[in-house]
């Protein structure tokens, strides 16, 4: 897969690149996961979420054109943001990371997880400082359960045709309640 360092659907659609980093997807997810206003995105704005979970709404001509993520080497880690700045407990932050993974692995786009995200890595993101993976997180029940959930979601994404095709159908949403439901359907596969 050839990935452009670009959040520009037009350029991805008209070049030899397969996908491009969808920064706006990250910013929308970060606002909703951390429960904050972030980079122009408002916590609980489900219309905004609808526009970002469907690649065609973002202007991509292929539903795999947007490379979607919730953490990267350029962005804060969800667990770190939630525990250090939003006063969530570790357990709450791991649940928030898990929710992010569920959305990441069930919407359109090409999902990417950042090293250690699947085990609750909680560290400052910096290009200058090394960030050893926090393998000790796997020795706790919370860390192991988070890792197992990420593994299960990745396996679902790999094996279920409904999660690989252009078939996202938003069934309901409510910004006041901060809820959204969507289906992915392909023949007998339904999610």
Q: Any low-confidence stretches, pLDDT <50, length ≥5?
A: none
Overall number of strands: 7
* Class by SSE composition: alpha/beta
Shape: globular
Query: How is the main sheet built?
Result: 4 strands, parallel
Distance between the termini: 26 Å
Order of helices and strands: EHEHHEHHEHEEE
Strand order of the largest sheet: 1-2-3-4
Strand content: 15-25%
If you compute it from the alpha carbons, what radius of gyration comes out, rounded to the nearest whole angstrom? 16 Å
- Helical run tally: 6
What is the averaged pLDDT score?
A: 94
**Which bin fits the share of residues in helices?**
25-40%
Written description of the protein model:
With 191 residues, the chain is of the alpha/beta class. The chain has six helices and seven strands. The chain has helices at residues 9-13, 23-34, 46-53, 78-84, 90-106, 141-159, and strands spanning 3-4, 19-21, 66-69, 110-112, 168-174, 179-186, 189-190. It has a four-stranded parallel beta sheet with strand order 1-2-3-4. A hairpin with a 4-residue loop joins strand 5 (168-174) and strand 6. Helix 2 runs antiparallel to helix 3 (46-53), helix 4 runs antiparallel to helix 5 (90-106) and helix 5 (90-106) packs parallel to helix 6 (141-159). The protein is globular, with a radius of gyration of 16 Å. The protein starts with a strand and ends with a strand. The model has no long low-confidence stretch (mean pLDDT 94).
């Amino acid at each position: 897969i050839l990935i452009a360092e670009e959040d520009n659907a037009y350029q991805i659609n008209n070049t030899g690149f397969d996908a491009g980093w969808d920064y706006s997807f990250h910013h929308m997810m970060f606002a909703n996961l951390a429960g904050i206003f972030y980079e122009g995105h408002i916590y609980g704005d489900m219309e905004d979420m609808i526009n970002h979970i469907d690649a065609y709404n973002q202007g991509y001509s292929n539903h795999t054109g947007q490379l979607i993520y919730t953490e990267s080497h350029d962005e804060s880690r969800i667990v770190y943001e939630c525990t250090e700045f939003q006063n969530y407990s570790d357990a709450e932050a791991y649940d928030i990371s898990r929710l992010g993974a569920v959305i990441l692995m069930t919407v359109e786009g090409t999902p990417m997880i950042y090293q250690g995200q699947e085990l609750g890595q909680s560290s400052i993101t910096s290009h200058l400082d090394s960030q050893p993976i926090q393998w000790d997180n796997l020795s706790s029940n919370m860390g192991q359960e988070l890792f197992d959930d990420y593994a299960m979601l990745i396996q679902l994404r790999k094996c279920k045709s409904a999660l690989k095709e252009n078939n996202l159908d938003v069934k309901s949403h409510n910004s006041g309640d901060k809820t959204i439901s969507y289906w992915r359907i392909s023949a007998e596969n339904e999610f």
